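== Item description ==
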Amino acid sequence: MHHHFHSYYLALDAAAAADVAQCLYPEWRNAVEKPFLWLGDLHPYLFTNLLRSFLDDQDSSSQEDDGDGGGDFLEYDAAAVREFHHRPWHVATAWRSPSRALTTRADQIECGLRLMAPALAARARHAQAKLARSVGAEWGSGEGVKAAVGEAMAEAMEEMVGVVVDANRLRRSVLADVLSVTTVYQAALFFEAVAQFLVGFRDLKLLKEFEDCEKAIN
């Protein structure tokens, strides 16, 4: 799964270099997917939020265990068996008691995203604003306006290609960081959750309910 995402984002880089507008405004994405898109693909916050959901679930389980008494371990075992009855025990309990290194690294990844994601979004806004100023300044200048507008467009598109490529690099970095700090079974369950999320976008019943919703999404 990690190799698939890595290859996918490299391919998306190549697609952006060929036609960045197609990546930024993908017509092939359905109505459920589009609210989750950020600079051409899934927002990297999705990956950290999924990671945090595993950690928070275990924190909640630990708090319940602390207050319930002596039969907690057997109760936890029974719950795990019900939830993961088709899986080996070491997979079913992979996220139980995550290491301090994992929780610390999760905090660091989130901190990095809070710095880098807004910076990339600001670069995109700056490129668009610069394009608008350049086109506005040249529009009434008479001769040579077509060439000037074309030059401004080319410069803006070049910057947006760089923004999309850096956004994909950030997404790849988050996934690689998660993989580097988790055990093989934790990573497998994490990537399974990412895959299930992506498959959920294609749920026809959910898509129909979303499209039939009367409330507009801003």
